[in-house]
Amino acid sequence: MVTPYKHEPFTDYTVDENRKALEAELKKAEKNLGKDYPLIIGGERITTDEKIISYNPAKKDQVVGYVSKANKELAEKAMQVADETFQWWRKTKPEMRADILFRAAAIVRRRKHEFTAHLVLEGGKPWKEADADTAEAIDFMEYYGRQMLKLKDGVEINSREIENNRYNYIPLGVTVVISPWNFLFAIMAGTTLAPLVTGNTVLLKPASTTPVISYKLMEVLEEAGMPAGVVNFIPGSGAEVGDYLVDHPRTRLISFTGSREVGTRIFERAGIVHEGQKWLKRTIIEMGGKDTIVVDKGSDLELAAESITYSAFGFSGQKCSACSRVIAHEDVYDDLLARVVELTKEINVSDPTNHDTYMGPVIDEKAYNKILDYAETGKKEGKLMVGGTGDNSKGWFVNPTVFADLEHDSTIMQEEIFGPVVGFSKAKDFDQAIEFANNTDYGLTGAVFTNNRANLEKAREDFHVGNLYFNRGCTAAIVGYHPFGGFNMSGTDSKAGGPDYLVHHMQGKTTSEML
Ligand SMILES: NC(=O)c1ccc[n+]([C@@H]2O[C@H](COP(=O)([O-])OP(=O)(O)OC[C@H]3O[C@@H](n4cnc5c(N)ncnc54)[C@H](O)[C@@H]3O)[C@@H](O)[C@H]2O)c1
Ligand SMILES: N[C@@H](CCC=O)C(=O)O
């Protein structure tokens, strides 16, 4: 019997012992930088000449690791291994597969500070954000393990008197997992372990900016008893390895998390039936957001301002859930804006290895330039209240930026910037605020601050996002508590960390025996 699921508690770094533990692991992690990491195909370590170099975004010349890069030939080798392994892995007991996840969770929990330290260096995450990423990875292991135990015998259906009917879920086949860099541990682990525990085999292609953490997960899974060939680690170029595997006729399921641009491309390509392909590929595609916080008149403005500031600038706004738009009732607009600007000015932007860093760098040069280009657009479209600048002398640091008086349909209020930039627009009443909030192509998260019950209920019905929060910020969904995924151009709403998620990785089979 397993204990009931509860989410992994966050670490309190004001406690001396915790702070010292992470400091010690950071020192160790820094000594281990710059190592070589091979591919893993069928358990075999393969080193290639071509490398993906993972850099610390806070110290742009510091190499986190050199990771061997797969090409099409190695991707094909991995596909064959995954396809062969699937033939027996699909018949393994769900309990055994769940146990691998439970053991993996225990291993990561015991070495929690080590993983968190790694995320600080490879992802540029401040301590609190890195700790939350590690905790979420553990949560996915614990939650999906338990969900599999619930689904293992299928779902009850009716039988007539002379028949015995059953409805079971069976795995799909080889799953291509393509993960993003921003939740480099949690999302990468969650999207890899869901297919594993449901009896599929996996080709894991992590984001090229953060591949080392995926190698570390592979080591954990091996220690937890995962047989060779079940998950194969094949970092490589999205365009080369990604396209090859998306197009491959033996690919059965593609689980992608990332940008709208790449997600829609994969969706289109996956719809093409290639020679030798015996199925229609299934896709789980979770993409970006343009997430709005609506603030009503008569609401708690201090709470709203603090929540907006954290939702916009936690991990430098590099969350698909980040608040990048605020729509405020005209009666409270000025006071709210003034308070958010005040709080933003207090934010400490520095190297995330420092305990007290609130905001670290953005992930790389491309992101740095893109965000500062958007800042220039913002200056034309609205009023720059704070920020709009960066410092790339040591790492990719962008200052938290607030724009005011934007039209709700301006570029800054419509396009995903994926950086520490938030825009403000005014609404004449609550109805108009919801109308403006819905006016984006996306539909991932949103939040409403109101003390008006009728308005809260209106938002519940009309604010069209996958994760809607009341009187709190719009980031920080917890596995098992806030199933996560969005509408419209935010993706397929597969709801990671929710009760339906594993079902997307399986197909329902009905058997009916005449008695
Ligand atoms: N909805 C969610 O749950 C969620 C969660 C995290 C991040 N995101 C989104 O992810 C984006 C940021 O992540 P990113 O910059 O890593 O996204 P990205 O789309 O650039 O990359 C995601 C992954 O796709 C791969 N890729 C690139 N080109 C490819 C191709 N042609 N074929 C196959 N794979 C390819 C990349 O190598 C990477 O592994 C943001 O838009 C963010 O909102 C969404
Ligand atoms: N699940 C995370 C966001 C994941 C995307 O980046 C949150 O709720 O903040």
TrEMBL record:
SUPFAM superfamilies documented for this protein: ALDH-like
Record's keyword terms, sorted: NAD, Oxidoreductase
A Pfam short name: Aldedh
GO cellular component: cytoplasmic side of plasma membrane
Source domain of life: Bacteria
Catalytic center residues: 286, 320
One function term, GO molecular function aspect: L-glutamate gamma-semialdehyde dehydrogenase activity
Chain ranges of the Aldehyde dehydrogenase domain: 49-510
Catalytic activity: L-glutamate 5-semialdehyde + NAD(+) + H2O = L-glutamate + NADH + 2 H(+)
Pathway: Amino-acid degradation; L-proline degradation into L-glutamate; L-glutamate from L-proline: step 2/2
EC code: 1.2.1.88
Any GO BP: L-proline catabolic process to L-glutamate
Name this polypeptide is given: 1-pyrroline-5-carboxylate dehydrogenase
Gene source species: Aquibacillus halophilus
Gene giving rise to this polypeptide: pruA
